[in-house]
Amino acid sequence: MSERPVPSGRVVITGMGAVTPLATGVDNFWPKLLAGENGVARVTLLDPSEFSTQIAAEVKDFNAEDWLDKKEARRVDRFIAFAVASATMALKDSGIELTDELRDHFGVCIGSGIGGLTLMGEQHRRQVEHGPGKVTPFLVPYMIPDMASGFTSIVHDLRGPNTCTVTACSTGANAIGDAYHIIKRGDAVAMLAGGTEAPINEIGLAAFSAARAMSTRNHEPHLASRPFDLDRDGFVIAEGSAVLVMEDYAHAIARGAKIYGEVVGYGMSGDAYHITQPRPDAGGAIRAMQMAFDRAGIKPEQIGYINAHGTSTYYNDKLETMAIKHVFGDYAYKVPISSIKSMIGHTLGASGAIAALVCLLAMRDGKLPPTINLGNPDPECDLDYIPNVYREAQAEYSMLNSFGFGGHNVTLILKRTADA
Amino acid sequence: MSQDILNRVKKVTVEELGVKEEEVVEAASFTEDLGADSLDVVELVMAFEDEFGIDIPDEEVGEIKTVGDAVNYISKKLG
Question: Do B43 and A69 touch (CB under 8 A)?
Answer without folding.
Answer: no
